[in-house]
Specification:
By secondary structure, the chain is mainly α. It is built from 20 helices and no strands. The structure holds phenylalanine. The site of phenylalanine (PHE) has 15 residues, from helix 2, helix 3, helix 11 and helix 15.
């Protein structure tokens, strides 16, 4: 019964796009994209990222929607149903594990955004220079208890929404909030681009210097394409299962991908001119946004209110993403094990929060402890974004391209032959080749490149 309530999920076309875009648009766009762009040298990295979005991300999103809507189940159940008992379900299982890892550290950073709402309310940045603002950030994240409290608060909000099911919370919230966020970012862009020395930031974003891009950078670009579009871990399979039968999956995926990419680029455009103008180090890492934007707010009339508003919206953007991560786990536990939704929600959220605590402590008390040579935070992030998600995406691509009959895919993408428009038919044709050949081969090439498999040829 609970299945039926959930399965009539998203009520309108705009509701679906808003919810899927709400999942895609989050900390990945505004916090992570700028800082990894800074670490990987700028424009060349962005170009590779855009190529990954177009050739891999978009087709994989169509594939995941197809799997979910066809099967009408959670990530594991969807693979199991369509894969008729073969080992494909492991792809869904991988997604559930990835969801645990991502939300563990995502909740920590989202907690920081709540603290920044409070800093903003207290007008804490106004008299500060670059050094002081970055000290404020460093001091806060290295505290042993406070960031964990904010992480717990954030995870409680996330659980609260997932607890009450899909339709009401997610759909309504994202429809209003995401456009508002866009307006605020545009205002920040205008201010940032008129700062003294802004052009250096502009060049950093748009003038590729290929020598700055390493094999690791290419892998990061691929990983981020998955991360930012919420792919390769079952989110878009699970959300796909809530999409009504009469919606056009290809055009939905297209809109979501465009919206996500535009927001990321606009966020970069707000941040890098300011980075150069204020003399912040572009490779400063996870604090980049938190150190740079407060200074832009200091330069704006009404910046006090804007900064409060901005960090509230950022926290909410994180929330519409985090609920989509937790939903993967809850839908799985609920449908496969018949665990009641509220028990599944609270249990999963508690385990995830505990898993996240070492990532928070890794910025302070536990900074000496490493996993595979990384602090906990980077270890979780790199394992999930650069390895598990591309792997999950590869499985989805192979499954839709080769694992199930193409007739089924076509039936799903044309809504049983209803959609006959030329654009849709051409798009499906392109999709067929991309999902069968280009996307899987591209993921494999990046993996091999990172492993150094081409060193002999290149050198
Ligand atoms: N795409 C989200 C973001 O950019 C993060 C996310 C990853 C959400 C995986 C769901 C699944 O912030």
């Amino acid at each position: 019964m609970s299945n039926e309530v959930k399965r009539d999920g998203f009520g309108s076309k705009i509701g679906i796009i808003a919810a899927a875009a709400g999942s895609a648009i989050g900390l990945g766009n505004i916090w992570k994209f700028p800082y990894i762009t800074g670490e990987n040298g700028g424009a060349a990295f962005i170009l590779v990222y855009l190529i990954c979005i177009a050739l891999i991300g978009l087709p994989v999103m169509v594939a995941e929607f197809t799997i979910g809507r066809r099967a009408q189940k959670n990530a594991v159940g969807s693979y199991r149903t369509l894969g008729s008992g073969g080992p494909w379900f492991l792809g869904g299982f991988l997604g559930v594990i990835t969801a645990f890892i991502i939300l563990a550290y995502y909740g920590v950073v989202a907690g920081w955004t709540i603290k920044y709402v409070i800093f903003s309310l207290g007008n804490n940045f106004s008299a500060m220079n670059t050094g002081e603002i970055s000290e404020l950030f460093g001091d806060f994240i290295s505290r042993p208890v406070e960031p964990i409290i904010y992480q717990i608060i954030f995870m409680a909000f996330t659980s609260f929404i997932v607890f009450f099911g899909i339709k009401t919370g997610i759909e309504r919230a994202s429809k209003i909030l995401m456009p508002l966020l866009l307006v605020l970012i545009l205002l920040l862009d205008i201010r940032a681009l008129t700062l003294p020395g802004a052009s250096a930031g502009f060049n950093f974003l748009f003038k590729p210097e290929w020598s700055r891009l390493s094999a690791t950078g290419v892998l990061e670009a691929l990983g981020h394409a998955f991360f930012t579009l919420s792919l390769g871990m079952g989110t878009m399979i699970t959300y796909g299962s809530y999409i009504r039968k009469k919606e056009n999956l290809v055009s939905t995926a297209f809109s979501v991908t465009i919206a996500d990419t535009v927001i990321a680029l606009l966020a970069g455009l707000a941040i890098f001119p300011a980075v150069f103008s204020f003399g912040v180090e572009p490779g400063a890492g996870p604090g980049l946004v938190f150190v740079t934007l407060p200074q832009v707010f200091n330069q704006i009339t009404g910046g006090y209110f804007m900064s409060i508003f901005f960090f509230i919206l950022l926290a909410l953007a994180a929330l519409t993403s985090s609920i989509s991560i937790l939903e993967v786990v809850v839908a799985y536990l609920d449908e496969e094990f018949k665990i009641k939704r509220h028990v599944a929600t609270i249990g999963a959220a508690a385990v995830i929060t505990l898993m996240g605590i070492p990532t928070s402590l890794g910025f302070g008390k536990m900074s000496g402890v490493t996993l595979f040579g990384y602090n906990f935070f980077d270890a979780y992030d790199k394992l999930a974004s650069n390895f598990l998600m591309p792997l999950g995406g590869l499985v989805a691509a192979l499954f839709v391209g080769w694992g199930i009959k193409w007739d089924i895919v076509e039936d799903e993408l044309t809504n049983g032959g209803e959609l006959k428009g030329k654009v849709t038919l051409v798009a499906i044709k392109i999709f067929k080749h991309t999902i069968r050949f280009i996307a899987p081969v591209a993921v494999l090439i990046v993996f091999l490149y990172k492993l150094g498999a081409f060193n002999a040829i290149i050198a």
